[in-house]
């Protein structure tokens, strides 16, 4: 009798173990579920390890410069003095220029593809937008050096200087290499990303919203405004995703921004971004404090990009969740 009771208890425990692995009680499903959970957990582990590794390698710079690292303008490897402010300035200004140019253009393209264009025209344009997003950044950089920079130097910057030279933003020597060129290059690179996400957001808006507006006598433009209002959080998320790409772009910007660690009010002046500084100077960093300062720049860029992309994902998720609930 005791043997039968023990056997039943063992079978019960085994059944509970299998159910813990999988609600169906199937051991294969449980193993598959565990493997997928481990794969998802691996991403979190990689992110945590990256943050810890960057923080550990930048400890020397953090201890020596403290918060002053973010506010100092001096970057002199010979004297061992390092400050991130010129790089932060170049990153923020070039990204802001990119967003100001790319957002209206991306919205126009996305609205045309979703609300206006017939299918035979929307498909090839969508393909071209996706193709632009897949072009390597170094190719953009080469195009920027040989096409964009000369065009801006000859046709655009002289006119901006003559028309708006009374503003500090458009003063200084014109070389075609500087903040303005870097910002326009970033705008070209992030436009396909913002366009693709905004297009998906607009397509996620329920057709009942369009039908209701048309039934009330709204014009096509007024109906489009209704769709845009419903997709505002997702559009904001798309902009944040584009901003995150612009903040972290390296090679193309490095080739056209001038790479000079200084702060100037002129958009024609050369500048530097955090990503460009790391790419250009990492191989030259022979001293411990020099290397630690570059790693701290990477830590700053990582945290800022991580926060921006996280916020963008939340905004896009909010739109898709609401559209799913409405459906």
Secondary structure layout:
Blueprint: H1 2-21, H2 27-57, H3 59-65, H4 68-71, E1 75-76, E2 81-82, H5 85-116, H6 119-134, H7 137-164, H8 179-204, H9 207-215, H10 220-230, H11 232-248, H12 251-256, H13 274-281, H14 288-326
How would you describe what is shown here?
This protein is mostly helical. The protein has two domains: 2-65, no CATH class; 68-326, MetI-like fold, CATH 1.10.3720. It is built from 14 helices and two strands, in the order ααααββαααααααααα. The protein has helices at residues 2-21, 27-57, 59-65, 68-71, 85-116, 119-134, 137-164, 179-204, 207-215, 220-230, 232-248, 251-256, 274-281, 288-326; strands at residues 75-76, 81-82. A two-stranded antiparallel ribbon has the order 1-2. A hairpin with a 4-residue loop joins strand 1 and strand 2 (81-82). The longest helix is centred in the last third of the chain and has 39 residues, at 288-326. The chain is globular.
Helical run tally: 14
Given helix and strand content, the structural type is: mainly alpha
- Range of helix content: over 70%
Taking pLDDT < 50 over at least 5 consecutive residues as the criterion, the unreliable ranges are 17-21
Please, what is the average pLDDT? 85
How many extended strands? 2
Using the CA coordinates, give the radius of gyration: 26 Å
> How many structural domains?
2
- From the 3D structure, determine the CATH topology of the largest domain: MetI-like fold
What profile does the largest beta sheet have? 2 strands, antiparallel
Shape: globular
Instruction: State the separation between the terminal residues, measured CA to CA.
Output: 59 Å
- The CATH class designation of the largest domain is Mainly Alpha
């Amino acid at each position: 009798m005791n043997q039968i009771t023990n056997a039943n208890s063992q079978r019960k425990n085994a059944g509970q173990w299998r159910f813990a692995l999988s609600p169906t009680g199937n051991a294969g499903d449980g193993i598959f579920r565990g493997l997928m959970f481990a794969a998802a957990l691996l991403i979190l582990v990689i992110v945590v390890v990256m943050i810890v590794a960057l923080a550990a390698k930048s400890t020397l710079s953090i201890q020596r410069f403290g918060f002053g690292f973010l506010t100092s303008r001096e970057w002199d490897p010979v004297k061992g003095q390092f400050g991130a402010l010129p790089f932060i300035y170049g990153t923020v200004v070039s990204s802001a220029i990119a967003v100001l140019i790319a957002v209206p253009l991306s919205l126009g393209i996305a609205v045309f593809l979703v609300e206006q264009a017939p299918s035979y025209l929307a498909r090839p344009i969508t393909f071209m937008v996706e193709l632009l997003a897949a072009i390597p950044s170094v190719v953009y950089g080469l195009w920027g050096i040989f096409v964009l920079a000369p065009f801006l130097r000859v046709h655009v910057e002289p006119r901006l200087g003559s028309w708006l030279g009374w503003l500090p933003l458009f003063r200084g020597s014109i070389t075609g290499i500087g903040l303005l060129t870097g910002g326009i290059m970033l705008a070209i690179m992030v436009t396909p990303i913002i366009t693709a996400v905004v297009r998906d957001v607009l397509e996620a808006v329920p057709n009942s919203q369009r039908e209701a507006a048309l039934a009330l006598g709204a014009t096509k433009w007024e109906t489009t405004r209704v769709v845009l209002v419903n997709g505002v959080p997702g559009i904001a998320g798309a902009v944040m995703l584009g901003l995150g790409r612009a903040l972290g772009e390296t090679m193309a910007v490095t080739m056209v921004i001038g790479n000079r660690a200084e702060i100037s009010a002129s958009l024609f002046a050369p500048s530097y971004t955090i990503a460009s500084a790391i790419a250009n100077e990492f191989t030259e960093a022979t001293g411990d404090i020099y290397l630690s300062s570059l790693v701290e720049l990477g830590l700053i860029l990582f945290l800022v990009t991580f926060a921006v992309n996280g916020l963008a994902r939340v905004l896009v998720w909010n739109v898709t969740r609401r559209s799913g609930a409405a459906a």
